[in-house]
Protein 1
Amino acid sequence: MIGNVHVKAGEYLPSFKPLITLYEPNPSQVIAYVHESLLVKVNVGDKFIVQSMQDENNKFEGQVVGLGSRIVEIPERLRKMPDLKTYGREVVIKIPVDNSLLQKEKVKILFPQNLQNNPEDNNAK
């Protein structure tokens, strides 16, 4: 599926610049952010529930496959207060490819009830 076209007919592009971007129909991973002030221990292999913010019944299990090695600015779209810059650690969560999410859809990440008594919500895209 074509995601973006980066050039118009007759336009010149520098070498090694993409002409188009291709997307899978559904995402295969979610990039989440754990706020830097949370004392949450997240490890590769941990499992989480990924839930659509548009449809609470659309949820499935995902597994952490990567962790950021530094603190980064959380994207404005994912902040509870968009005007206040916040920082956190990136967490890459692999999800089933047969999901019905849209590319770049905002989702909610939940700790499975059996792993933690008091679930903390984190936003992701």
Protein 2
Amino acid sequence: MKAATPASGRARAGGAGHRPKHVPQRMCVACREREAKRALIRVVRTPEGSVEIDPSGKRNGRGAYLCDRLGCWERALKSDALARALNTTMMPETLERLRHYAAGLATSSDGEAQATAAEPTKG
């Protein structure tokens, strides 16, 4: 049986308004914490077999997600968790490229932390 709708075809008045927008959730392969998809960094194994960083999150291939924390990247690369998630074997040059990317994350987040600490507090 269908629910009754007003003759105008609109939803009934008295509702709380629009439903909140759905935010896709993904899990970091290292720390297993769930976060919004956009808050994590996607690594993809392309159909050609190469492993690359996917900043857009839309590239073709099997993807895995990591936090922007250096510890998560180190754990994922050291324990082969990223390789397992991507169903591939990581070549040494690929591991080195990903470690270099992770080191860049560490320096950028350190700079943000220092800038935040240098801001005067209101009081």
Protein 3
Amino acid sequence: MKHSFKKTAIVTGVSKGLGSHIASYLSKSEFNLVLTYNSNKNAAEKVFKDISKRTRSELLKCDITEYSDVMSVVNKAIKGLELCNSNQSVWDFLFFKSCIAHNEKTKIWKNN
């Protein structure tokens, strides 16, 4: 059964590793999810298919180094955005963080 929660989280790099684990964990809590991948679409779609069984989610291709990609993801998620997880490099994380800095309630996790 899919739930529609008021909280939304962005999780980057969901095609493997930490991103997929965090997305799976959050899908079992009170979050709608905006999931991103950069190049491994097949793996990301498998994670998305599993997560979509538990909560509302959307899968988007996003090159975290491209401003337009990041803003597209942020604009999809901004209503109710409370959490952003980034598995990317420090530079990419700071770029992503600057794109959502206007939402003071957003919690941002940096894993690397």
Protein 4
Amino acid sequence: MNFYNNMHPYYCGIDLHTISLYVFILDKNGKKVLHKEIKAPPDKLLDLLSSYIRNVVVRVEYMHCWYWAATKDKSFSASESSFSS
């Protein structure tokens, strides 16, 4: 079995709720870079992550109704960031 083990400059975790998202970003050394609650519309998340594009791996806890987190913006390609449930 192959495991993905590439290092990245930033790691982002997102906890999705009905009206808000909790976003947490760590750098490659495990230092907290960002911990913020934002409103749930997709544009708020995309704006927040825009400065990290191509340098971040994203892990999302979500339900089926949050499918846009993985499909909304084509600039988040598999080579630039990683969305998973």
